[in-house]
């Protein structure tokens, strides 16, 4: 029977937060798993159930969350994974202790003076490149602005440009639980007192900061 892995944590003898999960332990680590007779279907119901389970575990455990569909053939394969990559997993878990992920989407308020784009001049290759370079410049400025505005309130950050012209920058922040209230207050203040529009969400499992440790 296959094993679906939800998350990896330190083996600290605590029971998993979700009653339907099984513990598979090795090398000082614990994988929180569920036996599966077949590959899970990536339908909305299953995706929501999976994410809710990971978020429930996060409330009481420091975890490396696994993406939906992290399936291994047996519990012994899970143990082999934990033994083989124990140093990597333990180091990643140490970085995540006491923190959660928050997501931000950021946009610059449109300038009415710009007016609509002229299709006759914006369709050329040169105009496209100028527009692309300007978008990259604005994204760099937004990153620098956020770094200054949130200095001291985040442990780590990750930025990604998006194809959405209304919100061209997406940010993920690793935020200490103790500073979450101050972080949320600061983000709300930025949205209310600047010309930039900021949407935030969280706390989430720290997917963006567990990159490179997938099974």
Question: Short description, anyone?
Answer:
By secondary structure, the chain is α+β, with helices and mostly antiparallel strands. Helix content is 37%, strand content 27%. It has six helices and nine strands, in the order βββαββααβααββαβ.
Order of helices and strands: EEEHEEHHEHHEEHE
Total strands: 9
Q: Which fold does the CATH topology of the largest domain refer to?
A: Alpha-Beta Plaits
What is the beta-strand fraction?
A: 25-35%
End-to-end gap: 17 Å
Question: Runs with pLDDT <50, length 5+?
Answer: 111-117
Q: Which CATH class of the largest domain?
A: Alpha Beta
Detailed description of the structure:
The chain has helices spanning 44-58, 75-84, 86-96, 119-122, 125-149, 180-193; strands at 2-10, 22-26, 29-36, 64-65, 71-72, 99-108, 156-161, 169-176, 196-204. It has 215 residues and is of the alpha+beta class. It folds into two domains: 2-96, no CATH class; 99-209, 2-Layer Sandwich (Alpha-Beta Plaits), CATH 3.30.70. The strands form two sheets. Strands 1, 2, 3, 4 and 5 form a five-stranded antiparallel β-sheet that branches. Strands 7-8-6-9 form a four-stranded antiparallel β-sheet, with helices on one face.
């Amino acid at each position: 029977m296959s094993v679906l892995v939800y998350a990896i944590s330190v083996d600290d003898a605590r029971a998993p937060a979700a009653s339907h999960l099984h513990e598979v332990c090795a090398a000082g680590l614990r994988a929180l798993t569920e036996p599966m007779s077949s590959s899970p279907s990536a339908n909305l119901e299953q995706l929501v159930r999976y994410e809710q389970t990971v978020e429930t575990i996060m409330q009481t455990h420091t975890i490396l969350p696994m993406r939906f569909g992290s399936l291994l053939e047996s519990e012994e394969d899970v143990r082999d994974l934990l033994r083989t990559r124990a140093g990597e997993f333990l180091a990643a878990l140490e970085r995540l202790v006491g923190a959660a992920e928050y997501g931000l989407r950021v946009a610059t308020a449109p300038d009415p003076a710009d007016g609509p784009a002229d299709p006759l001049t914006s369709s050329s290759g040169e105009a496209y490149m100028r527009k692309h370079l300007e978008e990259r410049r604005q994204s760099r400025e937004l990153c620098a602005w956020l770094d200054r505005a949130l200095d001291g309130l985040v442990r780590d950050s990750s930025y990604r440009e998006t194809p959405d012209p209304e919100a061209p920058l997406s940010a993920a922040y690793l935020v200490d639980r103790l500073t979450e209230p101050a972080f949320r207050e600061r983000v709300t203040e930025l949205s209310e007192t600047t010309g930039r529009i900021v949407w935030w969400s969280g706390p989430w499992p720290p997917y963006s900061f567990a990159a490179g440790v997938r099974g």
